[in-house]
Hints:
It contains 11 helices and 8 strands. It is an alpha+beta fold. The protein is flat, with a radius of gyration of 35 Å. 49% of the residues lie in helices and 10% in strands. β4 (199-202) and β5 form a beta hairpin.
Amino acid sequence: MQITPLETRPPSLASALQRSTATLRTLPLASVARFAAARPANTFTANLPAGGLADWQPGLQTQVASAQQALQFIDRLAIGLQKIKLDLGSAIAGAPVPPERLEQQRQQLSQLWNTRATQAGGQLDSRLVFSDDSPAMQGFAVRGLDAAALRSGGRETLAIALGTPTPARPASLVVLEPGLDANTVARLFDQALAPMGLRAEAGANGGVRFSAPEGQWTAVRDTLSIRGEGLRFATGTYHRVLTEAEPAAIATDTWSLDGGAASRQTLQQIVDAQGRVGRARDAAQSLLQHSAAALDASDSAHDAAWAGRYAASFEAAATNAAPGSADGAAGSQIGPLRFQTLAAVQAALPRVSRQRVLSLLASSA
């Protein structure tokens, strides 16, 4: 938001002194000179937050930057998907489309997709899901924790670790009971794995869907281990489990572009990817809109607080004794400076040196 200044430029010395002549004449010249000479440079400067927006909206700037990066990547991806969809659709319909053009479009999309982790702001995952409150996550399943395994067997305590547990990085425990529903099981795993940075939720097939930050996925895949009590997992030592990563929303190396029957399936995959792109764009734009609203609210609250502090400091200076007085009065000749006096003098001072004020007052005496 913009704040319109009260004056477009500082008042000139002549105009300021002309408006304040009547008031200045009521004061001894020595007192006014002492006030001008002793006035600190920042007497009436309000304390604006030095850190800007980050001082009252932690993380907001980072979220906005990530959303903007994601939108730029999404828009480029949408253009590439639309181009290859039109040409592939034409080829399926029998129109003459050069195969090399389709192959070039696939390669361009593949190159763009491979930059997603670094060019999409870090919050757009491989399923084209944009998250406004967490980094991009890689979903995966753990073999042995599917719906059938979770519902069979009796009570068992599972100890889960990344690598070999240590006192600084102990294993997390999950107690599986007979008769627990999928949501309850997923919640137990989520609570246990949260200290490791992993998440869990109920999967579409009745099992548990796990996820890890994309930057940590390789380490999680290679070190995730579970020790059981002999029902679902072996007892004794920790055993590294087999994980299955969720497929990406775009897998250009599996596309068929020859115009045959397999190309119809590829075309459907492209259409599905376009739908995901649209939803991701909506999510990123929603974050930007909410951030703009939060910024406006913060600006309004900050402007009001700033104006209040400015007025209070100005009023306090106006009701205090003239600078240079130790006992609360400007010598014994005048009492506390009144607001009108201070306003008149303040308007004249921004561009005036101490020597010029003293010279001007001396010539008026």
